Amino acid sequence: MTPAVPRRVVLITGASSGFGSTFARRFAKQGADLVLVARRRDRLETLARDLAAAFGTTTTVMATDLSQPGAAQALVDDLGERGITVDALVNSAGFGTAGPFAEEDLGRITDEIQVNVMALTQLSLLLLPQLTASPAGLLLNVSSTAAYQPLPNIAVYAATKAFVTALTEAIWQESRGTSLQVLALAPGPTQTEFFAAAGSERFKVGQMLTVDQVVDAAFVALGRRSSPPSLVVGSRNRATAMFARLAPARLALLVSARLTA
Ligand SMILES: NC(=O)c1ccc[n+]([C@@H]2O[C@H](COP(=O)([O-])OP(=O)(O)OC[C@H]3O[C@@H](n4cnc5c(N)ncnc54)[C@H](OP(=O)(O)O)[C@@H]3O)[C@@H](O)[C@H]2O)c1
Fold it and tell me: From the CA of 127, how far away is ligand 1's center (Å)?
């Protein structure tokens, strides 16, 4: 008898809503097993039950607050104790805070940097040996079009995403010649719970992409023979990101201040 091929295990942070939960569904449909991470355990457990019924997915729910220093290490230690080895990591957990920098709450921006930057970086580093050893290794970090220019009125968030894209693109280069796929996914405004969590009503539904459009684009990019280091989704978003990279800083700031006013 041929031994059963082990199923791919995908760990997804921020799996309780938005991009994270949609990635969970897509990977489950492809036949992967999952480790789902976020704070809202009830949502993760409901998703796990749905995916078990629909696709026979085995899901490990790990309710974790990634704003807590040490959370990433504790998560990886817990995986080790459970004997779970991860093939793919999708870092989707993250949030922003709308408003002028001078009015930011110190505790909230500390949590924001901890989730968007520290936990993402630590999980990427701690799990990299497992991802690299896997024939189906993937590191997908959810960045943003906010990464491409400073954004007045959501300044800390944009700075965290600039970090995510810079880090992920560098890991992409370092991983060339290995089987590991690395992608910084940079959606523009998308219909998730993000803007409600950020305290912003900046965009109307019709002005935003859908989660499925973004996730579809990510899978198309990952399906290419050589996937790109980063992916900006949507032609208008790509044009804005390119403009921000090429324009003089004063002009880029003027335009971005209008966008986020
Ligand atoms: N939607 C957009 O327009 C947009 C555009 C570009 C980039 N992004 C990025 O996309 C990623 C996912 O956001 P989304 O748009 O899908 O928004 P969302 O629907 O609000 O999802 C955010 C996810 O992050 C998790 N999260 C937040 N704080 C956490 C914490 N302390 N510990 C663990 N998990 C935490 C949330 O879970 P719990 O609340 O259950 O913990 C939730 O699952 C983020 O990195 C965001 O920056 C979003």
Answer: 20
